[in-house]
Amino acid sequence: MNGGAALLAAIVLLAGCGEEAERKTGQAQKAKATATANAERADPCAFITPGEVTAITTDAVIRTTASGHDCTYHADPDDGVQVTVHLHDGARQMQVMRRSAAVAAGLGRAVAGKGRTGADTEALLREDKTAPPQLGDEALWGLNTTLSVRQGGFFVSVTPPVMHDPLNHGTYPLIRRDERRMIAMRVAEKILARAPR
Length: 197
What we know:
Blueprint: H1 3-40, H2 50-57, E1 61-67, E2 70-75, E3 79-86, H3 90-111, H4 115-125, E4 138-141, E5 147-151, E6 154-159, H5 177-193
Antiparallel strand pairs: 1-2, 2-3, 3-6, 4-5, 5-6
C-alpha cells in the first residue's frame, strides 16, 4: 500500500471512530434525558389504590388507566375518579388551572344571553368562588367540581365521578355536588399524604 492509500485508510478509520464516539455520546445523552424525564414523572396511579378509591366513592373500581400525568379509576357505568399528578411544577400547574377557569368563565359570559342554552352554558362554566378546603399550600375548585391542590412543588388535581353505579345505588345515581366535593377532598388528602416531601 502506498503512502497516499495508507493515509486515506487512516483518515477513514479515524472518521469512523469519531462517528462511533459521537453516536455513543448521543445515546448516553438520550438515556440520561429519558432517565431524568422518568424521574420527573411518577406513576399517577401510585398515590392511591383502587381499593381506597372504592371505599371513598362506594363504587367498585374495575380498572385503572394511566396516561402521562393522569390516572383514571374506572367504575361502572365507566365513570370514575380522574387524578392528575405533577411532582415538581405545582405553582405553574395552579396558575394554569386559575387561567383556565377564568377563560371558561369568560366564554360562559359571552353566551349567557343566547337563550336557555346560553344561560345553562354560562352556569356550567361559571368560575367557582367557593372557598377551597385547607389542603396543601393552596387549593382551588375548578370546573366539574375538580379540586386542584399544590403542596410545595407537588400538584394534584382530582375530578370526581358524575354518577354512581346504578346497580349498587338504588336511588338517583347522579352524585350531588356536595358529595362530589367530599370525594375529591378525600382522594386529594390520601394522595397528599403520600406526596414526596
